[in-house]
Amino acid sequence: MSAPEPLVPDEALTSEKAANDYSAAVLTWGRGLEAQVDRICRWAVSVGMRDITCPAPNR
């Protein structure tokens, strides 16, 4: 199970720093999900799935 998407704090509406912190949190969250999908893709190839191309690890 993955972490839930970060919620927008009320302060993000009035504070540039809070808005930037939220943007960074969402970016980090999204990259984590992308890494999970990439690992699943590479696993599928390793067990014989054909005709798919996966990103290289640690890109």
What does this 3D model show about the protein?
There is one protein chain. With 59 residues, the chain is mainly alpha-helical. The protein has one helix spanning 16-46. The protein is 53% helix and 0% strand. The longest helix is centred in the middle third of the chain and has 31 residues, at 16-46. It starts with 15 loop residues before the first helix and ends in a 13-residue tail after the last helix. The mean pLDDT is 93.
Annotation keywords:
59 residues; mainly alpha; 53% helix; 0% strand
Structural class: mainly alpha
Quaternary:
single chain
Helix content: 40-55%
Q: Segments where pLDDT lies below 50 for 5+ residues?
A: none
* Strand percentage: under 5%
Give the SSE layout:
Blueprint: H1 16-46
In short:
The chain has 59 residues and is mostly helical. 53% of the residues lie in helices and 0% in strands.
